[in-house]
Amino acid sequence: MGKVLLIILAALFTDPVNTVEVLSVEDGDTLTVIEATRAIKVRLACIDAPEISQSSYGKSAREALKHLLPNGSQVILRIKPNDRYGRTVAEVFHNGNNINKLLVKSGDSFVYWQYINGCDRPDYARLETMARLQGSGVWSVPGGIQRPWDYRQSR
């Protein structure tokens, strides 16, 4: 009985996982994947990359994600609850690497603190601090560039 209960609890508190193929990268935190015959737009969980229209940093973030996940890459999605736009939200893994965390570590994305629930908050904080201290990417200017969420709100 105890083992059965543990298995049921583990299933309830573990994010669903899907293996899919990358079809395209839209921007620094959004990609389209194909699962069987269905295309799915995926918003990377717990991070927020600069918008494409937000100076050169948005284009740089998109290129970083394209470099990490070329079209045709097989990735594992750790699915989170859909966002308010109905998009699939996930942490994305490729070759054993958490792509979301790599984008924060390289300074190509900010931690999206408003939506960090369900992700490893301490690790994301550590990676963002490292990028900030090294002056990487969005942190190459003191205090970092305008946050994407503020940029969107100002438009």
Automatic annotation (TrEMBL):
Residues 16-141 form the TNase-like domain. The keyword Hydrolase applies. It holds the Pfam family SNase. The keyword Nuclease applies. Keywords: Endonuclease, Hydrolase, Nuclease. Gene3D superfamilies: 2.40.50.90. One of its GO terms (molecular function) is hydrolase activity. PROSITE patterns: TNASE_1, TNASE_2, TNASE_3. This is TNase-like domain-containing protein. It comes from Prochlorococcus marinus (strain MIT 9303).
